[in-house]
Amino acid sequence: MKDTAETVLGLLPRDVAYADVRVVERTHELVLVEHEGPGDVMRENSLGVGVRVVIGGQWGFAATHRLDLKGLTAAVSEAVAQARAADGGAKIALGQPVTTRARWSSPMAVDPFTVPLSGKLDLLAAAVAEARTAGPLLRQIEASMDFFRDDKVFANTEGALIEQTITESGAGLMAVASDYDDVQRRSFPQAVPRSIRGQRGQFATAGYEHIPALRLVEEAARVGADAVALLSAPQCPDQNSTLVVTGAQLAMLLHECAGHPMEADRALGSEVSLAGGTYASPERRGTFRFGSPIVSVHADATIPGALGSYAYDDEGVAAQRTELVKDGVFTGYLSGRESAATLGQESSGAARADGWQRIPLVRMTNLCLEPGDSSLAEMIDGTKRGVLMDMTKSVSIDDQRLSFRLGAEAGWEIRDGKLGRLLKNCTYSGVTPRFWADCDALGNRDEFQVHGIPSCNKGEPLQVAHIGHGTVPARFRSVQIGTR
After folding, report:
1. Is 321 in contact with 332 (CB distance < 8 Å)?
2. pLDDT value at position 308?
3. Measured between alpha carbons, how far apart are the two ends of the chain, in Å?
4. CA-to-CA distance for 361 and 445, rounded, in angstroms?
5. pLDDT value at 202 more than 70
6. How would you class 276 by CB atoms within 10 Å of its CB: exposed for 0-12, middle for 13-18, buried for 19 or more?
C-alpha cells in the first residue's frame, strides 16, 4: 500500500501545488440473528486509492480500485483535469504543511476477524432466545455484531507518510412488540433512531473483547419484557415540566444541537443547499450563549477505545482535543485544513473520509459533554414533577440546528422525587440555546460513558462516519414534553 501511494505521488505533473493520496483497505463483517434464526452473515472487503490535487488554487479528486500503473495513471489524470478545468474563485488555503511520518495501530486484545463465526452466532442466538421469553407479543428480535478494519496509508507532497490500522467492534439488541393496535420497541445498549440492519448497539475502537463485556445475553430478557410492557403503558402526557434524560438519550441530542452545528465546513456554507446552515456562525464565537454555565462541550479524538478515536485524520493531522463550548459559551469548531485556514486557525484534525472513494469532510470525533457534580439518582430525588426518558427513537431538527423534537423509546413519571409509571411515546421539543440554558444538573464523572455510533450521515454523495458521544445524565427545567 505504501508503494502504491508513492507511485501516485511520482505520477503528478509539475504544476500541482499540493496533492495527497490515501490507499485504504476496508473489511466489514456483519453477523445478525433474528427471531426466526440467522439473518445476514456477510463479510466484504474493498481496496482502492483516492488522490486530491490543487492546481491554480482549485481542487481535483479521483479514485480507483485499479491499482496497476494504468489505473493509477488514469486516476491522477482525472484529478488533474478536474483541477485545471475548475472555474476561478477563492483559492485553496491549507495552513501549515503536514510532514508527519508515523505508523499506528489501535489497541485490541482479540482480533475479531479470527473469532469463529459459530461462536458469534451462538452468542447472538442466546440473546434472542432470552429476549423471546417475554412472550408472544414480541414480534421481532434483532441481535447483531459488526466488525470493521481500515488499513490506511496517507502520503502528501509536503513529505507526510502515515500508516494506520483501526479495528472497531460492536454489538446490540432490539426487541419489537405489537398487540396489533400498537408497536413499541426497546434497544440495548444503544438505540438507532432510524431503520438500519446491523450496526446497532455500542461500538468501540477495540477487538472482540468488547463484545462479551456488553452483556447482551444477560440483558436480553429485560429488553424484551420492556418492549412488551410499553404496549400497555399510558401515553406520555402533554405538559411543560422538568425533563431528566439518561446519557444514552443525551447522545443524540448533543449530536444534533452541538456536533453538526460546530463543524467548520457547515459554518462556512458548504452544506447550505443540502443539509442547511448553523446558528454557530463565525462572528458568534466567544459571545454566543449555547447553554447554562455548567455546560461545556469538547471533541476528543484521543480517548482510548472510543469509536471516534484515531492517531491522525485523513489529511495527516494529529488527533487532538478541541473545545467547542466553555461554561455555556460557543468557542470553537471541528475543522479540517481548508476550513481551519479560512477561519485563520489550525486544523483540529477532524477531516475524515468514508473509504478511499470519498473526499475528507469535517466529521465529529468523540463529542463529549463534560460531567458535572450531580448523579441520576440525585436529579430524580430533586425533581417534584417531571419525566425521565431513555434511548432515542426519533429525531427532527431544522436546517439551522435550532428548533428540534426528539422521541424516546421509554419514559417514566417522576413524582415527588420518585420514579413512577412507565410511559410510552415520549417526546420533547425545544430551541437549542433556550433548551440548554435550562440545564441545571449534570451527572458526575462516574456516570460518564462514551457511546459509539457507526452511522453518522453527511455529504453528497453520502458518507457515513463512526463517531463517539461522551455523555452523562442531565436535567432540564421548563421543557415542553409530549405532542403539542
Report:
1. no
2. 98
3. 56
4. 31
5. yes
6. middle
> Is pLDDT larger for residue 482 or for residue 134?
134
* Helix axes of 117-132 and 216-231: crossing angle, nearest 10 degrees: 30
pLDDT on residue 459: 92
At 237 the three-state DSSP class reads coil
DSSP 320-377: -EEEEEETTEE---B--HHHHHHTTS---S-EE-SSTTS--EE---EEEEPP-SB-HH
Report the pLDDT averaged over residues 172-190.
96
Burial class (CB in 10 A: 0-12, 13-18, 19+), 462: exposed
Residue 51 CB burial class (10 angstroms; 0-12, 13-18, ≥19)? buried
Rg (CA), the chain: 23
pLDDT classification of 195: cutoffs 50, 70, 90 = low
Predicted confidence at residue 484, as pLDDT, reads 55
Tell me the DSSP string of 1-59.
-HHHHHHHHHT--TT-SEEEEEEEEEEEEEEEEETTEEEEEEEEEEEEEEEEEEETTEE
pLDDT, tens digit (0-9, with 9 covering 90-100), for 56-111: 999 999 999 999 999 999 999 999 999 999 977 789 999 999 999 999 999 999 99
pLDDT digits (tens, 9 = 90+) for 413-450: 999 999 999 999 999 999 999 999 999 999 999 999 99
pLDDT, tens only, 105-132 = 999 999 999 999 999 999 999 999 999 9
Question: What does the domain layout of the chain look like in residue ranges?
Answer: 2-231, 239-482
Contacts of 404 (CB under 8 A, 6+ apart): 253, 256, 257, 395, 396, 397, 398, 429, 430, 431, 432, 435
Cell numbers given for 307: 469509536
Residue 415, C-beta contacts closer than 8 angstroms, at least 6 positions apart: 384, 385
**Residue 208: which of 172, 173, 169 has the closest Cα?**
169
Residues in CB range of 344: below 8 A, 6 or more apart = none
Other C-beta atoms lying within 10 Å of the C-beta of residue 387: 25
Measured CA to CA, the distance from residue 201 to residue 248 in angstroms comes to 11
pLDDT of residue 3: 96
Which segments of 228-305 are extended strands (E)? 239-245, 297-300
Q: Residue 456: enclosing H or E segment and its boundaries? A: strand 449-458
Are 278 and 267 in contact, with CB atoms under 8 Å apart? yes
Residue 182 CB burial class (10 angstroms; 0-12, 13-18, ≥19): middle
Helix, strand, coil abundance in the chain, percent, nearest 5 = 25, 40, 35
Classify domain 2-231 by CATH architecture. 2-Layer Sandwich (3.30)
